[in-house]
User: Fold this.
Amino acid sequence: MHIHILGICGTFMGSMAILAKQLGYRVTGSDANVYPPMSTQLQSQGIDVLEGYDPSHLQPAPDLVVVGNAMSRGNPAVEYLLEHGLNYTSGPQWLSEHLRDRWVLAVAGTHGKTTTATILAWMLEHADMAPGFLIGGVPKNFDVSARLGESPFFVIEADEYDTAFFDKRSKFVHYHPRTLVMNNLEFDHADIFDDLAMIQRQFHHLVRIVPANGQIIVPTGEPALDEVLGQGCWTPVVRTSVDGSEAQWQAKLLSDDGTHFEVFHDGVTQGEVRWSMTGTHSVNNALVALVAARHVGVRPEHAIEALNAFGGVKRRMELVGDVAGVKVYDDFAHHPTAIETTLQGIRNQVGDAPVLAVIEPRSNTMRLGSHQQQLAASTAAANQVFWYQPVGLDWSLESVAANGSVPAVVLDNTEAIIDQVVAMAKPGTHVVIMSNGGFEGIHPRMVAALEKSAC
Assistant:
């Protein structure tokens, strides 16, 4: 059976393509944005990727076209499949049909889904449970972002974004989880949601399908999620906290940067974690993952062992270069809260060392300007900010740069950003590049420019 995937280089669709390949399907795909790490991962799996959305990619007709949620009416491939009556479905719907007999552990929330899902899958792997998983990123402890696994357990990053142009429900309602982590909830995806209440409605749709013999894990201090649960909940809820209010499961920080912490259950210590991740948000991700893993039988001490051996996720504070004492990181942050926690995390780790933030406001929500009032404050932990004004952003970043508490400039081309960063960087500097896209390949170009400057 031949499956062709429209939008195959999206993090979800690329991972789904790998599962389809493992199931024995012939898989091809097309996308307008082909860049690593997903493009290289697909290539390594023997999956052919075509550039663009030419209708010829659907000739001869595949047995099934799986349509990514980035596709819309007017797209040439979409118009062709509709006009010619091709068999099509959405990615989440296709996946749901292959998860019917699995114990699904889903990780939902505005922030931290990829990292938390990766931690959870790694905990199960470390406990020899051989889970399946689909993660919207490339985890370093695994070779791929998705696999079928060899047990009933399947870990999935559960996104609230809409399913497809023909199915406007959130993707996560298709997954029918038995174990559900709801990590946090803020307003995002302004291109499809008018306000937070609309997102909360989708989250409650998800709560409604978790069985009574399942489990929902929610950190304390998340009022938007408390409101969701207040609309009705039929499943046991387990609470977690990090250096905060009383909860069944707690983490106590033993270092300011979050690299060392202790885990407690009902006041009884379960062990200490020393790992490479930084920030309180990372500790929270670890704790909720540990509780979810325990729900399927992983003992806390084994989960803690897994955390101590956790390698992280590509594009989540991934060190991509260290040139003459200048470290360059790639991070996926694209929301004010994510930007703030990322920068605060590196600040706690490096102390007074210079931190240069390079930020591309690329997400649909950013492009609409929904978060522009919060952006300036989100960069307070940096020493210098370089804002990239991309083509198509119909509002100016100049006011954001002017209103920040740290020096900031706005530049409209990546070459100028690289030149200014290289001129400013000195040994001991940390350069944090934040974008949810390829950012014109700025990461290797930045490293190359620093290497040339160091010669």
Notes: The two ends are 54 Å apart (CA to CA). Residues 318-454 form a domain with the Protein-Tyrosine Phosphatase; Chain A fold (CATH 3.90.190.20). The mean pLDDT is 90. The first helix runs from residue 11 to 22.
